[in-house]
C-alpha cells in the first residue's frame, strides 16, 4: 500500500529533525568522528508509530550507537516533540533500526571487483529480507 501525502510529510519532518537531534547528542556526548544520519522514516497509517532507519559511520559502531539511541528513546521523543509542536499534534512512538544498505552495497561491489563474482555464484552473498 502506498503512503499517503500526510504520512510522507510527517516522515520528512521527523527525518530532518531527528538527524539534527541525534548528531547534536552524539557530538555533545563526546563521540567525535562518528556520523549518524537518518536514512529513512516510515510512519504507519494511523500515525502512531514511526520506524526510523539510522545509518552510522563507521559501521562497526552501529550496534553500540543503536543501543544508546534505543535506551534514550523517551528523551529523543521529548526533544523531537518540542521541535515539532507547531506541526504535529501527537508525536508517534519511535522505533529505531540500523540501516545496513550501504554496507550491503559495499559488499556487492567488493565481490564484483574480486575473484568471487556473485553473478556467477549467487550463494556468495547473504540473503536479505525485504522490508
Keywords, separated by commas or semicolons:
single chain, 131 residues, alpha+beta, three-stranded mixed sheet, 4 helices, 3 strands, 18% strand, globular
Task: Compute the CA-based radius of gyration.
Answer: 17 Å
Residue windows where pLDDT falls under 50 for at least 5 positions? none
Number of strands: 3
Measured distance between first and last alpha carbons:
13 Å
* SSE ordering: HEEHHEH
What is the overall shape? globular
- Sheet with most strands: 3 strands, mixed
Structural class: alpha+beta
Binned, the helix content reads 40-55%
Number of helices: 4
Overall pLDDT score: 83
Beta strand %:
15-25%
Strand order of the largest sheet: 1-2-3
Walk me through this protein's architecture.
This protein is an alpha+beta fold. The protein is built from four helices and three strands; from the N terminus they run αββααβα. It has helices at 5-28, 62-71, 73-83, 101-113; strands spanning 35-43, 49-57, 93-98. It has a three-stranded mixed sheet with strand order 1-2-3. A hairpin with a 5-residue loop joins β1 and β2. α1 packs across α3. It is globular and about 55 Å long. The mean pLDDT is 83.
Produce the secondary structure layout.
Blueprint (H helix, E strand, L loop, with lengths): L4 H24 L6 E9 L5 E9 L4 H10 L1 H11 L9 E6 L2 H13 L18
Parallel strand pairs: 2-3
Antiparallel strand pairs: 1-2
Helix pairs in contact: 1-3
Compact summary:
44% of the residues lie in helices and 18% in strands. With 131 residues, it is an alpha+beta fold. Helix 1 (5-28) crosses helix 3 (73-83).
